[in-house]
Write a structure and sequence with these properties.
Length: about 800
């Protein structure tokens, strides 16, 4: 484009009313600056006046300034495109016109007019063009004034109801969409008007005039409109119909909730009720779940649909209404009714296919007959039911019953998508119901297994007085996944353990047995509680992977994924108590004065699901304190679980009562758990003891080989004081070997401790981090027989690590000595 063409183009495109004026002296210095110039380039007048024009342009255009000045002098002015530079360095494309204003002795003064280039050259974004763009857009668009009254809207907005655009003029949002929450929408508009902050992605769920019976979802965005002075003149907003996406999210959420809520037990009636609870009100207003009597008894069922029959007896196993307004005489949970041939429930049972009706005949009566005394059928008009779906409950090729879904007149009738969703939900529940049916056939074998897994008698020890109570959800078989244990540890300490495996039945019992065995094995390693749980977590996750169970998949087969465990170690020497939890409730502590507190215990993730590392807490317990370890079934109430605070308050009141520990443990369970609990319950109570000062003796030893003989003599004197002269020889050998090893292989201080309780315990502490290993020396070896002799002469020996070193210990039984 030549200079004259460029000038002519700029003249055609330049709108003086929108231009930003600048004044330049003959040398090209800025002498006049306006507020419009400040808004365009962000320089205040104090910083702009006195600058050269070239300082306000991008580098490539700054180099053109001398040539432009020459062209202005020759042609009397210039117009064209330039790139200016804002104060922050951001480039802005502008149309510029330079004209002479007056002649001075030093030359001409110049007026520079700048207009920001907001659109591509050749385009005229007039109101007519803008209205063409938005009028045919599929998105609803509207503009309201500062009083929130419609001043303009496009055609697409009419699809949401409220009439054509011309009828909206002057109306408020509530006038055109009374079914939506107009107050909330207008609150968003006022916020935008007051603050100027745009609101993007505001989701509104409700009903619109175009679909009064259907719940709809819309995504709205609001932007403030301003005049050229920045004053608000209204709000521009857009509306997008998100109903289908909203319904898809609801369906997915409902399926997720069904997976979590249905099948939490092996009780047929409870599982049927869980299905009814999940689908109301999300899918239907009224739901009934009817099961065959043979399925409820756990009998073996023939594969495929039922044979054609004149009538079928079904028991109402679950039902749920969106409102408690069903007639008193209607069928109730537990009632048995006969469904006549040709009725939709019988048709579904015999064909194995679902059935749906958009509209029920209002004068038709319910399909059941032979109701219990005092019950009668009602017409669908009396029940205010008008749309129905009936889905057979089938699993593993067998038919268990039928589920019926009803809607009332205030909602739209069921469609095919609703039917598919209902079939998915029923299919999930059918698997759980069939599992419960099969469970009854396994209970005899399960009873034998359960009895072999739980401890018949807790081991005797001197650290605590212990009592336990176990109450399974199925009292008939005594089968469940909750468990408890007490494990004697070295140094007179004990480990108290309570755990819970998800689910019930033989698989849960088998998984519980594996978990309890693993805990006892890990406890023998004398690891801290958090490390025991970490190893247990790895074991569960590895076992689940070998079985093809993904982390977080829940109860599957005999997997322990998702199990909870509380591991507590108590030391009767100093009253120290250390504990860690994996997805398990924290224990309660009952002080000697009957004050009840709950340990502030960090909750680690359930076993096998992954997550942050486990944390332990340490506390000191006064002698006579009682630890109450329990599973979450202790806080269950009916089919639900109390809130944490409510459940703990009930437990607190029960624990505050006094009494012998054995009877008190049973009293607590009786007070909190019904005779037929909805979840397994395990309670382990331990009243702590302390070893007396006359039962523990300890000495600090220097790291000097000469001290070994002194250690032997000191131990001999202590045994004589205790009257254990028969153990002197063995104890001298043990002390000599352990102290010698500590001096030879470890660093730092050495500590010898003897503990007399049910066994004589000899412990040697050192600051080393390496555990000794038992060797089998050859005949010609001069050493290496010490630990071999210790292992042969003592009842058991081992190593446990503490934060500042390790302890090597050995135990000698006192049973033979006392006898």
């Amino acid at each position: 484009m030549g200079p004259h063409e460029e000038y002519g183009f700029a003249r055609r495109r330049f709108d003086v009313a929108d231009a930003v004026p600048l004044l330049l002296d003959p040398q090209g210095m800025v002498t006049g600056w306006t507020d419009d110039a400040r808004r365009l380039l962000a320089y205040p007048a104090a910083e702009a006046v006195g600058r050269k024009l070239s300082d306000l342009l991008a580098a490539e255009d700054a180099e053109r300034v001398p040539d432009l000045v020459e062209r202005c002098r020759r042609d009397g002015g210039w117009a064209g495109l330039l790139t200016a530079r804002r104060k922050n360095g951001q480039p802005v494309r502008v149309m510029a016109r330079i004209t002479s204003t007056e002649e001075t002795p030093g030359g001409s003064r110049w007026l520079v007019l700048l207009s920001e280039l907001g659109q591509a050259p050749g385009w005229d974004m007039s109101r007519a063009v803008l209205e063409q763009m938005v009028a045919g857009a599929p998105v609803g668009i509207a503009i309201v004034d500062t009083e929130l009254r419609f001043v303009w809207s496009n055609t697409a907005l009419e699809q949401f109801g409220g009439g054509p655009a011309r009828r909206r003029l002057g109306l408020r949002f509530a006038d055109v969409q009374p079914g939506m929450d107009a107050q909330a929408v207008e609150a968003q508009m006022r916020h935008v008007l007051e603050t100027g902050e745009a609101v993007v992605g505001y989701e509104h769920v409700g009903h619109v005039r175009s679909a009064p019976l259907r719940e709809t979802a819309h995504m709205l965005s609001f932007t403030r409109l301003e005049d050229d002075r920045g004053h608000p003149i209204g709000v521009y907003y857009t509306v997008v119909d998100m109903t289908e996406r909203h319904r898809a999210r609801q369906r997915l959420a409902l399926l997720d909730r069904a997976g979590e809520s249905i099948g939490r037990s092996l009780d047929l009636m409870r599982t049927a009720q869980e299905l009814a609870d999940v689908v109301v009100p999300g899918v239907a207003d009224f739901v009934t779940v009817d099961l065959l009597e043979t399925a409820l008894r756990g009998a073996e069922l023939a594969p495929g649909p039922l044979a054609d029959t004149d009538e079928v007896a079904l028991r109402r196993a679950g039902q749920r209404s969106v409102a408690d307004d069903l007639p008193e005489g209607a069928l109730r949970v537990g009632d048995v009714a006969t469904y006549l041939a040709g009725s939709p429930p019988v048709r579904c049972l015999t064909t194995g296919r679902s059935w749906r009706a958009d509209r029920l005949d209002p004068v038709t009566r319910e399909w059941a007959t032979d109701l219990p005394e005092g019950r009668r059928t009602f017409t669908f008009l009396e029940l205010d039911l008008y749309s129905v779906m009936t889905v057979p409950i089938r699993s593993r090729g067998t038919t268990l019953g039928v589920t019926s879904f009803f809607r009332r007149h205030r909602r739209e009738p069921f469609d095919e998508e609703d039917l598919h969703l209902a079939e998915d939900l029923v299919a999930r529940a059918a698997v759980c119901l069939d599992n419960a049916r099969r469970y009854t056939r396994e209970r005899d074998a399960a009873l034998v297994l359960q009895r072999s897994l739980l401890p018949h008698r807790l081991p005797e020890q001197d650290a605590a007085e212990v009592a336990a109570c176990y109450r399974p959800a199925d009292e008939l078989t005594g089968l469940g996944g909750d468990w408890y244990d007490l494990i004697p540890l070295s140094g007179g300490r004990v480990a108290l353990v309570v755990g819970e495996v998800p689910g019930h039945g033989i698989d849960a019992a088998a998984a519980m047995g594996q978990l309890r065995t693993a805990v006892r094995t890990l406890a023998a390693l004398d690891l801290p509680p958090e490390e025991v749980l970490a190893h247990l977590d790895d074991l569960v996750a590895r076992s689940a992977r070998e079985q093809g169970v993904e982390p977080g998949a829940g109860d599957s087969g005999r997997s322990s994924v998702g199990s909870g465990c509380l591991y507590v170690v108590y030391d009767p020497v100093d009253g120290g108590c250390t504990m860690a939890a994996a997805g398990h409730p924290a224990p309660a502590v009952v002080a000697p004065d009957r004050t009840v507190t709950f340990v502030d215990l960090p909750q680690g993730p359930p076993l096998g699901v992954g997550g942050p590392p486990f944390e332990a807490v340490e506390l000191s317990l006064a002698e006579g304190s009682t630890l109450a370890l329990h599973t979450d079934g202790l806080l269950a109430r009916g089919e639900t679980t109390w809130a944490v605070d409510t459940g703990r308050e009930r437990l607190r009141r029960a624990l505050e009562q006094a009494g012998p520990l054995e009877s008190h443990c049973l009293t607590v369970v009786d007070a909190l758990v019904p005779a037929r609990p909805y979840d397994d319950v395990a309670l382990l109570m331990a009243r702590t003891k302390r070893l007396g000062t006359e039962q523990v003796a300890a000495w600090d030893l220097p790291s000097d080989p000469a001290v070994v003989a002194d250690a032997r003599r000191t131990a001999t004197r202590q045994l004589a004081h205790w009257g254990l002269d028969e153990l002197v020889f063995t104890t001298e050998l043990v002390v000599s070997e352990l102290v010698t090893n500590a001096i030879r292989y470890a660093t730092g201080s050495i500590r010898l401790r003897l503990i007399r309780e049910r066994a004589l315990v000899c412990e040697v502490f050192d600051g080393g981090a390496t555990a000794p290993h038992l060797r089998h020396p050859r005949t010609t070896d001069e050493g290496g027989r010490g630990l071999l002799l210790v292992s042969q002469l003592t009842q058991r020996w081992g190593t446990r690590f503490v934060p500042d070193g390790k302890i090597i210990w050995a135990e000698q039984s006192l049973t033979d000595v006392t006898e």
